[in-house]
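Quick entry between incubations.
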Amino acid sequence: MRAGVAGLRLSVNNLACDRGERRIFEGVSFVLEPREALVITGRNGAGKSSLLDILAGRLHPATGTILLEGAGERPLLECLHYVGHRDALKAALTAEENLSFARDFLGSPALKPHEALEAVGLAHAARLPVAYLSAGQRRRVALARLLVAHRPLWLLDEPTSALDTGSQETLRLILEGHRESGGMIAATTHSPLFLKDAKEIRIERTKIPLAPAGEGRGGEDA
Amino acid sequence: MIRSFNALLVRDLKLAARVGGSGVMGLIFFLMIVTLIPFALGPDLNLLSRIGPAILWIAALLATLIGLDRLFQGDQDDGSLDLLRMSHAPLEIVVLAKVVAYWLVTGLPLAIAAPFLGLLVALSPEAMLAMVATLLVGTPALTFIGAVGAALTSSLRRGGLILAILVLPFMIPTLIFGVSAANAAVGGTVPFATPFLILAALSLIAAVVGTVGAAAALRSGE
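Done. Structure below.
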């Protein structure tokens, strides 16, 4: 099974997110189809990561729907890779062990762990415990996880953070390669990712004091 | 599904064996308690051998508890729990793999070490054999019950004490039947099989309820 599933379509409609009884953002809608990339921008705290968290099933949306068409019986969670701020690596295990666990555990295996590490330029560190690696190297191991199992949708939370310019270029090539094979990408970022024809959406924080007309918030003056 | 189960089981066993793992911690704690009690009670061999099974069982219960708070918290902290949610296998399989790994590195060594520690509390050979049997059959119940508490407290910073308060009451039946089975083996009016079979039943019930309950707790968290 290739990364891309023909006819896969992710449609997000009118999504809103609450954190601690405060509305973070609302009215976010987009459609993502194979070979497309979505770049999510916005200021710190605007809710970029929360949007990815909702897509990855870690948070529940306050309103709105997320629909994945064409995936058959596989739920959204089984069609995606998520690389967040926490790199989900076990410090006591080596880079290779971390990746071979992900490969066996996630199913639909793709590249072998050492091939994936070569692809991110870390072949020499395969036998080192992740605890000995630098922040940028850890991030590259986490990104190598994208390559060890086929998943059509990649959710990346600031994938370039801690990466040097050379690794950023490697990452760009990996992302473009994924798109060419029919995959989809949604990434939050502050620095430009230089992806070809990427869609962009900007998340704005809902301005609560300036929007008293919103449902349920009008009664504060009474 | 089996592949995911095995991958996670092997990963957790490796982690327990590496530096900073909780592999031998429970066993050393067990040894400490059992060694301390004869000092506190004095050199009365009759008294010791009479309450020996109870001492060993309480020590085993506490030894199971001390590492439990890290069962899911470690994965929660480094983001691995998000990865674990994305498997093709349901979360129940994830919980089962982690609990089995935990039992193999804490419960099983306790049962194997029981005869040696039984020497310290002047157990007779029959009582030692009964201790091994009851711990083998009873400690899975403790681990599965504890897993529900571990899942509930996984996102709390200092969840260890809350975990103990939550799960200790539910461990009491296991303790009662474990000790009474061990006592029945050396004499008394009740045949060994009666409390032993109830203990086995408790383990089986805990295996089902604990797995489903811990998975539900992980789903509702965040």
